Amino acid sequence: MNSTIILQHLNETRRRSILLWKSVPEEHLLWRPDTEAMNFLEIVRHVVGADHGWLKILQGENMRNYSSPFTNRAFSTVEDELKFAAPFRAEFLDYIQNLQGQELLKKDLAHPGVAELKIRGEYILRTAYHEAVHAGQFLNYMRQLNIDRPNIWD
Q1: DSSP-assigned states of every residue in 106-140
Q2: Which residue range or ranges hold the DinB-like domain (predicted)?
Q3: DSSP for residue 150
Q4: How far apart are CA 129 and CA 59, in angstroms?
């Protein structure tokens, strides 16, 4: 396992997410299928905001009193979310890039609410899975609204 392959996977996952996110017309960004569900912008915020939390977990910080820099921030546009999140994404990716082979194999990460320790490299790959799950949710929303869906399967 090496950080180069992991970073490529994370970047490809995000590239495809951005294609989806930018394809939703602005008039639909606050749409949600029901009152319990996130709307399009909340999904984007949830995904891009998670990079900050993932980094704190990788750095071994106690998440009990975690405070997201996205808390109480007004929703605007997908582009605005991406711009605000860019430094957090860069810091997350830089951290991963600096991990060496053996560091990726350490089983020392505690995810909040999960007792079993996680292997660093596998944990990082799970962050891409989290994003992919929400890409599927996004596609489902788009299908419900008959919004043209971009080809993310290139």
Answers
A1: -EEE--TT--S-EEHHHHHHHHHHHHHHHHHHHHH
A2: 10-137
A3: P
A4: 20
Measured CA to CA, the distance from residue 132 to residue 139 in angstroms comes to: 10
Residue with tokens 């970073």: 7
Domains annotated on the chain, with CATH: 3-144 (1.20.120.450)
Instruction: Render pLDDT for 68-82 as a digit per residue (tens, 0 to 9).
Output: 999 999 999 999 999
Contact of 108 with 120, CB cutoff 8 Å: yes
Q: Which of 102, 49, 47 is nearest to 72 (CA)?
A: 49
Q: With contact defined as beta carbons under 8 Å apart, do 99 and 3 qualify?
A: yes
Instruction: Provide the whole-model pTM.
Output: 0.94
Signed CA dihedral, 36, 47, 129, 137: sign only: positive
